[in-house]
Structure formats: structure tokens, C-alpha cells
Design a protein that fits this description.
43% helix, 136 residues, alpha+beta, 18% strand, elongated, 2 domains
Amino acid sequence: MNRLTLAVAVSALCATTSGATELVFTPVNPSFGGNPLNGPVLLNIANAINQYKDPAVQDALNRLNSKTPLELFTEQLQQAVLSRIAGDVAGGTPKPGTFDAGSFLVTVVVNSDGSVTVTTIDKTTGGSTQITIPPL
């Protein structure tokens, strides 16, 4: 009787339907369809384990930190003068002449046909650039 009861119980368990469903893959990375809230977490983890240091960034930081405040001010002043000259030329009201912008010498010439020629000479290297802007 024991064996018969055990056989009935085993067959009853085997006869029930199983509740299995499909396996569905849900990505974690938002680039592949995952939850967008996972993005910052994944980026922080990647940055935390990143051992690579860009040498160009380190060189730029070293150059920036090695300049005196006077050198930084001089560079900013040069950029302001060059920007002003470029704005005058682009705005159609160029002032002809030669301008000394620290390590650059800028010559603006208004030609007879209305075009403008801007020549920039780098005093430190001797290199020059010439740009001709057609009349407006």
C-alpha cells in the first residue's frame, strides 16, 4: 500500500502543469534600451575604474600652471586685440593700418576693389598668414 500511495502521489505531481514563461532579456545599459536612470551610475563606475590619463591634458595643465599671472594677462590681451580686429574686418568697417598685438603683427589693407587683405605675422616664429576678404 505504501508503494501504491507513493506512485499515485508522484504521478499526481507530474501531471500538474508547470508555470514556466519565456526568458526575456532586459538590458541595463541605456544605449541598448535599458533604463535611462542607469546611465549616470554606469558612467561613474567606468570613470572610477579608468586608469588611463591623457598626456595631452596633463601637458596643457602643466603649461597653464607654469605661466605667471602677467603672462596669462598678456595672452588674454593679445586675444582681445585680435578679436577686435577680426570683428572690425568681418563687420565691414575695417580700419587700415598695422596693429601690434604682442607676439603678432597684424596688417589690414583695404584694396581699391573693396576687398580687405589681412596679413598676420607671428613675431616669435616668423610665420605669416594672409587672408583676402572679398567686398561685401
